[in-house]
Amino acid sequence: MDTRCRQPEAMKLCPSFNVEKSCYQATGTTEEQVIDLIEKNEVPASFKISEATVTYAWVYIISNVHQQRGETLSKCLPKSLSPLDASIVVPSRMTSLLAKTKKLAEACENDEDVLSKLHVPAKQLYPSSQVFIGDECQRVGIDANSLKTVFDPSPKLTSMMVYELEIYRTKQGLPRNVLIKWLSNIVGVQHLSTIAEDALIGAVVSIKTKKNEADHHRNATTLMEMRQQEFVFPGERVKPETDVLTTVTKQLTASKKTVSKLQKDLKQTTSQLKRTLTEGEKTAKRVRAQETVEKEHANCKQLEKSLQEKSERLTQKEKEIDSYCKPYNVKRREKTSKKNIADKEQKIQDQNAKISSLEQDISKHKDNEKQMSSRIKNMRQSRGYYVQKTSALQKSEEVISSQENEKLKQKVKQITAEKQELKRQLDYLADELEDLRERNKPHLREENGEISNAVWECYVRLMALGVSAKNMSKVTEAVLTIICNFEIQADDLPKATSCRKVPMLANALSSYHVATEVKKTTHATAHSDGTSRDGVKVIDFEVTVEGGRTFTTGILPVAAGDANTQLKTFAFMTEKLGALIDKKNGTKEAKEIVKKIKNTMGDQAATQRSFNEKLEEYRKNIVPEVTEKWDELEDEEKDELLSMNHFYCHLHGLIGFATYCDKGMQKLEDLWRSTDGQLGVEGLREFQDKAGKYTWKHDDSATQRLVRTACSAFASGGDQKSGAIGPFRTFLNIKGIPRNELKTFRANRFNVLFANAASVFYHHHHIKEMFDGGYIKASNKLLRAVLADITCGKLVASIRALGILHKQFTEPYWRLIEHPDVPILKLTDHIKKSHVKLQEWSTDATPLLNKEMPPVFILETGEELVPIKDHIFDELYEDMSLQNATKQALEVSCCSLLVVYKRRFADHLEGKYSGPASQSLTEQTKDTLKSNKRGENDFGYWAWVAASKPTMTHLNTEGQCLYRLNRTDQFLETLRSTEPAEYRRVMKLALRGRRALHDLYNKLSEDISLEKERRMEEHRADQQRKKDALNKKLAARKKTINDHGGECKTKHEVETFLNSSKSKTEKTHIAKLHIQLIKDTYDLTDLPNRKELVKVTKSTEVLARDLCTLVEFVHQPTPEVNDQNDTAEYTESAVDITHIKDQIRDQLVSVGVGGRKSQDVSARRLAADETTRNEKPTQPRERDEESDEEESEDDLQDESSESEDDMEDESTESDDDDAAEMETDGKADLKVGDIVVAAWEDTWYPGEIIQVQGTNQHDQVIVSYMQRSQGNQNRFSWPPKNKLDIQPTLIAAIIHRDIILTPGESLRYVCIEKDMLVTLNKKYNKYYNSRIAL
Predict the structure, then answer these.
(1) pLDDT tens, 738-768?
(2) Adjacency order of strands within the sheet including 1267-1268
(3) Residue 441: half-sphere exposure toward Cβ, Cα within 13 Å
(4) Contact 920, 468 (CB under 8 A)
(5) pLDDT over 90 for what percent of the chain?
(6) Nearest-angstrom CA–CA distance, 775 and 773
(7) How many CB atoms are located within 10 Å of the residue 499 CB?
(8) What Cα–Cα distance (Å) separates residue 1153 from each residue in 1265, 1280, 1285, 1307?
(9) Which of 445, 446, 1220, 1289 yields a CA-CA distance of 20 to 30 A from 1251?
(10) Pick the residue with more confidence: 619 or 34?
């Protein structure tokens, strides 16, 4: 029950026993005395004792009296309780005190219960710990409890301490005589016996005003003086100083005080004048106040004059002092004094201005005096009228009946009760509002002045959200001041230096979080993975605990990626976790963590397997040390504790599926090339080298090439330079296709090859239609490569096969791995069943071509992992073309998948986990995950943090990652709400452990640097050792050869050299030595068939022949080149360069209107060479000799400057009006004077036929072309007569005839209608894609 509401009902309890009466008897007082106490706020003289211990009985009777009087308890109760005992500490919220009092009153049934339960000291008013008053009081040991006793010896009482005592008294709601008693306890009763209380209170008020003004103006000097200056009681005098400078300074100070006092008096007078001007009846007083103000004004002027005279005298005295003594710092003091005098004078001027303003107001009121008098007269007349009317009504004969009078009384009583109830509710809501304000007030610092835990937790969460260290305090201040409307000081928040240590705090908190989670579990699984960034190897570790929850334990840099280094890093990580749990017994806690690691999860790299073996040996040495009664255990129990279970990521199998399927596709494509020729883009001449061989920078299949290039050209995030992402999206909108299913191709992603292959097959009809319909132009190599491959039936069949495998196998397999109801040991049955299926499909893949094929994976619960039957699935099975090629690709892919099964799933097929699992093994592995996906995600986030904050240390980067990935914020939130004491301990532990963690990581970094240097030095020494051994071998071979006549330089010397040998064995040996010597001494890079010639495992005759070839090659004569030849070559090169410059100038001259090549220069080629196509239909179009060079790896870059927006503008219309196209047969009617549009390699141009040379498609017509304006693509004009552009044009290149040209705004140019312009662009794109691109 909430005791804050309905306080009157909360105190009136127990109808069978009068608790209130018994409380009066217990306290020895009456209700009248309590009312007297409340009204006078002091102990009445009729009380038997002058001061009492406040008990719950006192609280009960005083609160009841307040409630009966309709007063608010939160405001009145502290004032009533304080006179009883000045040492009580009234809490800011009365809820707990009133609830305790109510509970005790409910339990009282007789007088004895009241004496034993209620009449006991109220603990809420007497806290056991010291109550903090202020920093200065705390410095000398003054707190709320010590104020009750006399200090011996008396501490130095400063002005700031008096201010803190006054503020504490005000907060507690105590009378001012309590403050006087506190001061007497501090300095002694005798010291205050001669001082009047009013004078002392006035001095305290002056100090409080001085402190508030200093805070308002941020005057640090005044605050420092208050902390150092001893409080001077009224009537005390300071001993005179003998120093002349001190006397002068004190005179100046006295003058300042006089000015300040006058200003205060002036301020008080001004406020008094303002109060007297509120009503019209006080006009005379305002006049008298004006006279007073004038007098004060005159006094101020006289004072100002007196101050000026004193200032002159002081200046004179200072000059005299300077003549015989120059005290330290006098000039600065003089400057400060003058500045203060100037400030005071300025304030006097401001006050004079205010007085003038008041005088003006008074003059205005004088003018209104007559008007006010008239109003008063009217009001008196009205009053007489109403008095007469009231008398008349009283004498009237209308009498209210007694019944009506009773009803009115009842109504008044009811309204009074409702008013009382509303007042009580208002009091309750006021208390609630006060409690809410108190609770919601930001707690920025602790009582000792340190930053609160809430602030540090907030900053750590801001760090996890990406807020930088320099902006953390700015963000916090903005939120608290703008949204929460709290007034805070910037000094209350951490500085930037402290904010930079927030990631260290996050590291410590998250590491402690992980350590506690591991400590709670029984069988944990350790995950590990590695990566490299900027030449630095990094290893991360995760641990999976009960419930399948995975936590990242560390992301640490290492010197190398071998198993030994990985084990050392693992030990470092466990020692860090152990030290956070228990600093003294950190080693033991680390061993306990190692003992709980029962399983491992990683990839199948050789390093991972070696690490698993070393980790198991490392664990075997630790487990006996931390296991109680180890020697008493049975051997089977020991083996059970020492053994470990090693698993490998099953999602990595998807990468293996893609890798081996691609290799299988390469073999199948080689078979297709032997029967059908080159596939897709391989047959285009521009993608071949001089020898006619196609080159591709990736070592993968043509199937994967199609998937890569299509995704690069049309997927969001693809090639921004050469792709057509925007136009493809527009085309899909035109055709009503909801979205683009293509995704960016990244080869290291799980299942990317199969999923993207399905998407490419879904869109392959759309891509072909977009090119064939002329919606876009294949204007660069990337688009032409996609166009060539997408029209190859074999490649389309292979991507369909991969898409079917994605829907029927790889995607359900992924869902199986991530299914929460499938433990890792249950995968064995699924792997065995799917292995049988793959064996069947590898011989006959017909079931995969059936849309209604049963699902491959069925869980024990009966749940079937059926394929996702969306529009992609439907497209894969609706297109039934190329069934044979698709079946071949499926069978080859299934054979490749079987290889992956044998390599990756050997433990499940025929190894440790292939049989039924024991109960203990099932219990140990029930929470083990089936993949190492968490490690990949951790590296992704770590790489993002490292890239976005490159100056961050590794400790801070790891701290941000751990806190975010492990969701430590939820851990702290739960801990704060359920276990506040533990929360404070953890925060304190983390804050104190930051430095130790920093030193630990610094030592790790130093060890890594030393290890890298050691490894580099070992590598250098090893290379030197190999080099020395090679030189030694060469020397031995040279010696042997020299012993037999020396090295041969000609073929004749070789024959003579070999014939000089005594035996065939010696002859063979010498020939081998000679070949090896040539191999190690000379550069044989340009030697044809080099690898075969340097082999020494041959017969003697072959060795002799190869030796002759090598000798002829290495000792062939080299032409001598003298200086004159060099000069001649240089001169020849200079002539060639001049010729090249002339050619470039010719090209610049030949540029016509609009930036295209002029028709006067024969450099522009026709768009289609039909003759070449007819002669070589299976070969790509010929290219210029200058461009017939070997392509680089980036052979799919953009060749044209046409932007993506330009292509989109050409194809934004959806109207596919085939009737507007000119049929081929209609071209036979071409005649002189027709206006036609012809396609060229760069774009299309309109022109007039001036001669017809034939009617066949391969014949030509002579056309006089118009020129296009440079700034407007739809503005054409005829060139001048001396620059006519007349060119022979193939009839096949004419894409439109009888074009209508509309005159423009000027008669000098013509335009084409917008609809016709779109049609011409589509026709040109169709022509270009079909006749030029391929």
Answers:
(1) 888 888 877 667 778 899 999 999 998 999 8
(2) 1267-1268, 1276-1277, 1310-1311, 1302-1303
(3) 10
(4) no
(5) 10
(6) 6
(7) 20
(8) 12, 12, 11, 18
(9) 1220
(10) 619
